[in-house]
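User: I'm putting together a teaching handout on how multi-component assemblies are represented. Below are the sequence lines for each component of a complex, exactly as they appear in our records. Could you produce the 3D structure of the whole assembly as C-alpha cells, so the students can see both representations side by side? Please keep the chain order the same as the input.
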Amino acid sequence: MGNRVEHLRAAVVGASGYSGAEVVRLLSRRPDVDLTALVAHSAAGQPLDALYPDLTGTVGATLTGLEQADLGDADVVFIALPSGEGMAVAESLIAGRARIIDLGGDLRLKDTGLYRRSYGHEHVAPGALREAVYGLPELHREAICTARVVANPGCYPTGALLALLPALQAGLVETEGISICSMSGVSGAGRSAKVEMSFAEVNENLRAYKVLAHQHVPEIESVLGEVAGTAVAVSFIPHLVPLTRGIHTTIHCRLRRPVGQEEVQALYRDQYASAPFVRVRTGPPEVRAVAHTNYFDVFPAVNERTGQLVLLSVIDNLVKGAAGQAVQNMNLMFGFPEDHGLRGRV
Amino acid sequence: MGNRVEHLRAAVVGASGYSGAEVVRLLSRRPDVDLTALVAHSAAGQPLDALYPDLTGTVGATLTGLEQADLGDADVVFIALPSGEGMAVAESLIAGRARIIDLGGDLRLKDTGLYRRSYGHEHVAPGALREAVYGLPELHREAICTARVVANPGCYPTGALLALLPALQAGLVETEGISICSMSGVSGAGRSAKVEMSFAEVNENLRAYKVLAHQHVPEIESVLGEVAGTAVAVSFIPHLVPLTRGIHTTIHCRLRRPVGQEEVQALYRDQYASAPFVRVRTGPPEVRAVAHTNYFDVFPAVNERTGQLVLLSVIDNLVKGAAGQAVQNMNLMFGFPEDHGLRGRV
Amino acid sequence: MGNRVEHLRAAVVGASGYSGAEVVRLLSRRPDVDLTALVAHSAAGQPLDALYPDLTGTVGATLTGLEQADLGDADVVFIALPSGEGMAVAESLIAGRARIIDLGGDLRLKDTGLYRRSYGHEHVAPGALREAVYGLPELHREAICTARVVANPGCYPTGALLALLPALQAGLVETEGISICSMSGVSGAGRSAKVEMSFAEVNENLRAYKVLAHQHVPEIESVLGEVAGTAVAVSFIPHLVPLTRGIHTTIHCRLRRPVGQEEVQALYRDQYASAPFVRVRTGPPEVRAVAHTNYFDVFPAVNERTGQLVLLSVIDNLVKGAAGQAVQNMNLMFGFPEDHGLRGRV
Amino acid sequence: MGNRVEHLRAAVVGASGYSGAEVVRLLSRRPDVDLTALVAHSAAGQPLDALYPDLTGTVGATLTGLEQADLGDADVVFIALPSGEGMAVAESLIAGRARIIDLGGDLRLKDTGLYRRSYGHEHVAPGALREAVYGLPELHREAICTARVVANPGCYPTGALLALLPALQAGLVETEGISICSMSGVSGAGRSAKVEMSFAEVNENLRAYKVLAHQHVPEIESVLGEVAGTAVAVSFIPHLVPLTRGIHTTIHCRLRRPVGQEEVQALYRDQYASAPFVRVRTGPPEVRAVAHTNYFDVFPAVNERTGQLVLLSVIDNLVKGAAGQAVQNMNLMFGFPEDHGLRGRV
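Assistant: Of course. Below is the structure of the complete assembly, with chains in the same order as your input.
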C-alpha cells in the first residue's frame, strides 16, 4: 500500500449529506478517480444534482440504496453517515479489499466504553476499529499512508488540535486549563430538517449548545493526551453562528514559561513547514480565507500580561473539517501528492 | 436630584449614529419626554428619518449642527459621539444645568494616563470626568440616581461585567486567568463607511480583531478591580460575526472551591433579584432572546472536570449595550421606574 | 358591535407559530387586553417562552391543547393555524359569542370551488365563511368594524393589493398584464422543520417557488376583481430571499393614459390620507423601514418610456402581513383607535 | 488570431476589486497562463493576498501602480476598473500588441451620446470603441474569436439577455412591455467603503435602487434591439438583496402566440445546445446552483392564463457576470476550449 496508482475507483456512502456530496464534488474534478457508486438510502433513485443543483453538468450519477450498491470493486470507500450508522458499513467492508475512509465519529475513539458514553450507543465494529488510524495528516502522515482504515477527524477537533499541537509538542503550555471556544457555521450540523436549524431561527441569532457535553470532547482529549503523554481535560464550548461554512476556534492556555511572540510564531512555522495546508498567520485569521479551501489558518498570540497563549484558527468545516481532509487522506493512502486536486479554492 | 419629574426635556448629540438614533427611537415612545434637539454635524439639515426610514411618522425632527443647537434648557443631554469627540461636548455642558449621559468611552476611565494609552489621545474634560459615575445600574444604582454625569458602559464591558460580577463578589473565582471570548454583531462598530464592514466582507465571514488590544480591556479591568479589591488582568478576544445586533460573551474562569451547578445558579438569581433586566437562564442564552430588548441573559455553568466556571451571556449591543442602558440610567436619574419605557421588545 | 370596550379577553389558537406568537407579543403589551388562552397542540404543556425566549419575563403563560382550552368566554379568538386546520376551529366557535380573526387562508375566498382548487381540500366551514369579511382595513374598514368574523389577508396579498388598489380604483391602469414579483423572508413559511428552509439552504441563495401556482393568486385576483368590477388575472412570482422578516413587492402594470409622476404620487397620498399605517414614499422603499412595524410603504413610479406604472412596496410579513394587521382589525372591531398599540416599532 | 497558443501572458488592471481579483483567482489555476502584472493604484505595493487572504499560498504577487506596470509584453490585458477609468487604459493599449478584455462599461455602447447620457461623462476612447466586440459568447462567439478588444457584458445584462435572446430570436414575444426585475447580491457594487453597503444596512434589508435609471438599461436595450431588428424599450428594476454573490432575474414579456411549456423548453434547449455554460432548467433556478461557477441557469415558464412568458435566470455576478465570462472570452480569443479552466466550481 502507499504506492502511487494510476487510476482509482471510489465509492461514497452517504452521498446526499453535505460532507458526502462535498467528497463527490472534489472527486468529480479528478480525471484520475472514477466514482463507482453514490449511496444514499433516503434519496435512492434520485440524481444527486436534484439535491445539489450546482452539480448539473458535472456529476450525472444517480443515488442508490446500500443494498443495490456494489462496493466490492472500489479501491476506496468514503463513509459519510451519521455516527452510529457508519460503523456497520465499515465493518461489512473490512473483509474485502477496499480501503475505508470514515468521515463519521464511529472509528475515532479506541476506547469503546468512552465511545458508548459519548455517543449513547454500543460500538459494534471491532474489526474496523482495530485497523483505524486517526486521519489527521499533520500528525499521523506516516500511519495514514499505509492504513487500511482511516477515521477522518471531526470538524471541531481539526480546528482545535492543529492549533494546539505545536505548543503542546514543544512543552510550551500547561495541559490543564485549556479553554476552547469554537464558533461553527450551520452546515456542520448536516443536511436535515430541524426547526432549530431553520433560517428564521439561526439568522440574527447566536448561541452556545451542548455546553461541556459535546461528543467531540473525548476525541480532542484523546489526541491531546496521546501527544502530551498524560491525560488532558479541556473545556469546550461550541457556538452556532449564522454562516453556512466555517469554524473559528479561539483557545486560551497557560504558558509554562515566558515566551515572545516571534518565538511562538517561528515554532509554529517550523512545526508545519512540510504541511501543505497549514498557513501560520501574523494576525487574526478569517473564515473567508479558508472557505471552500482545504487550508487551516492559525495565529498564535502571546498574552504577556496574563501569561497565556491565545490560539486563533479557522477552517472550512466541510473541506478541511470533513471532505477535503478525507481526500487529503486518500491522496496519502494511494501515493498521490498530498495536495493533489485540493489546491486553492475547490 | 433623583426626584420624579413629570416631564423631561432631552437632547441627543450624535443622533445620526446607531446608538444615538436608538436613544431617539426609545425616547420617541415616551409621552413624558420631549426631544428638544437632535444634533449631528455630518447630517445637519436632514430629517433623521432620511437615515432611519422606520422613523417616518413617529420622529419628524431635523438634525442640527452643534453650533445651532440650544442644549441649555435640556434636563438631560445624551452624548453618542465617537470617543475623543464626546468629552468636549460634555465639558462644555458641565457649567450648565443639564445632566449628562455619555454613551462614548471618554468618561469611563478615571485614570487619564490609562485613557491616553487606551484611546491614543489626551483627556481634555477633567470637570466632566470628576463628576462621572460609571453607569452600570446593576452595580452602581445608588450613585447613578444622584449623578450629574453618567458614563454609560461599553457594549463589551456590559456583557462581560454583568456575567462576572456575582461570581467575583461572592469570591467564587480566581481573579487571575479570566478569559473572555466575545462575539459581536456589526452595528457595534457604528454607522460608517468602511470596506471591512461592508456586507460582502462580513457575510459568510468571522474573525477576531484588536486581539489583546481592545480599548474596552481597561474598562473591564477597572470595574473588576474595584469589585475584587485587587488589580485584575483579563484576556479579552473580540470577534466580528455576521449579524447586525447582539453580543455573545463566553467567559472561562477558575473556581476557588468546588461548587455545584445549583448553588451557582441560586447565587446569580439572588444577586440579581432586584434587577429588572437580568434573566438568569438554566441553559445557553440566545441572541434572539435579547435582540431589540434591554435584557441581559446569563447562564453560569460549572465545569466540574476542569474546575472552571463558564459564563455565557447575551445582550443587544445597541440596547442594553448602549441606548437602552442609557435610558435605564435616565430613568434612575430622574426618578422614573427603572424599566419605564423599556419593557419587552423596544 | 363596534363600541369601545374597556377591557378585552382574547385567546390565540396556534400560539406556537410565528404569526400566533407575534399576536401574543403584541397583545402582551396591551394593559387593556387579557390573554385567556394560548392554544398549540404540538407544544401543549410548554411555556410559550420555551419557544420564544424573548418573552421570558413578559409572557409567562403555558400552551394548552385545544380540548383543554376554554375559548367560550373570550371576546375575540385569533386563529393562526395552517390553512385547512383553522376553519374547523372557526366553525366550532360560530355558535358562541366570541368574534373571530382568522390569520390563515380558509376564510378568504368566498368561492368554495376556487378554495378547493387552490388549497387542495374541501371547505368545511360554511357558517364561518358566510360571516367572514376580508380584513384589509384600508379597503373594508366599515365592514370590519361590525364583522363577526374577519379573514385576515395573506402576507403577499397585503403587499400587492395595497400597492395596486389606488391605481385600479382610479382607473389608471389596465386590468390585464399585471405582473407581480414578490420577494419574501423565510418566516413567511412558518415555524417548521424543512430541509429547504434550513439556514444552510437559504443563506447565500435566492429562488422563485410555486411559480404561477401560489395559493395567494386567487386571493389577489378576487379582491382586484371586486375593486375593478371585472375579472382580473395576474401573474404572480414569489421568491424566497435570505432574510427573516419582510416582503418586497415589485409590480408592473400598463397605464391607460399618460400620467405624471407627481399626479400618481398625489393620487396615492389622497387615497391613503386616512390610513394610519400607509406611508407613500418618494423613492424606493426599504424592508428595514417596516421591519417590526405595522407600516406598509409604497412608491409608485411612472415609466414614461414604456407606458407602465411600477409599484414598489414593503411590509413586515409577520406584522402588517399577519399579526399586526390582525390586531389592527381587532382595534376596529372593538372600537379602539385603529393604531392603538401598533405605533412605531412593535 | 484565434489560433491556439501554448502559453499566454496576461495582465490585470484593477486587480484589487472584486472582479479583478476574481480574474486573478481564475487565471492562477491555469498552468498555461502567466500573470505578468497585477495593477491597482490604490493598493500599489501591497501583496494581493493582503486584501484576499484566501490567495495566500497560491498568488504571491504584489500590486503595482499603472505607471510602474509593463503591460507591453502581455498577450491579453484584463481591465477591471470603474466605468470612466477603464477606457483611458484601453485607448493607451490600442497601439500595442495586447488584446484587451474590458470588464467595465466603457466599451459596451457604440453610441457615444448614449454613453454620455448613461454614464454622465464623455467617451474618450474612440480607437478602442471601434475595435470592441460585445463579449457575450452565446451571441457573438465568432466575432469574439477574432476580436482585438472585447467589451465584457455587465452582470445584469448577462442575466437578462441570455434569458430573453431565444424567445426574441424565435419571434415568440412582443418587444414591447418587457419587464425585468433583477435581484443582486452586494458584491456587484464592487469593493468600496459606502455606508449603504455596510453589513448593518444591507442585512435583513431589501430595496430597489436606480429605479428606471440604471446605466445597464441602454446596454440591454442595444443588444435586444440588434437581435430584434427594432428599437426595444424595457423596464428594468434592480434590487439589492442580502447575499454576497448572485443575481436572480425575473422577466415578464407578452407572448405573440399561444405556445406550450414543452415547446418553449425545447426552443431554449435547442438554442443553447452548443453553449457549455447554459443549463435550461425545468423548474425555478437557484442562486446556490451557480455560485462560484460560470453557469447561467434559466427556466422559461408559460403563463397561459395571462398570455405571458416568464423567464427566471440566475448567475454568479462575479463569475458569469464578470470574471468568468471574461476568461471564457479569453479562451475563445486564444483558441482554448471555451470552458477551459471554468468547469464546475471555480
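A couple of points students might notice: Chain B touches chain A through 46 residues (CB under 8 Å). The first helix of chain B runs from residue 18 to 28.
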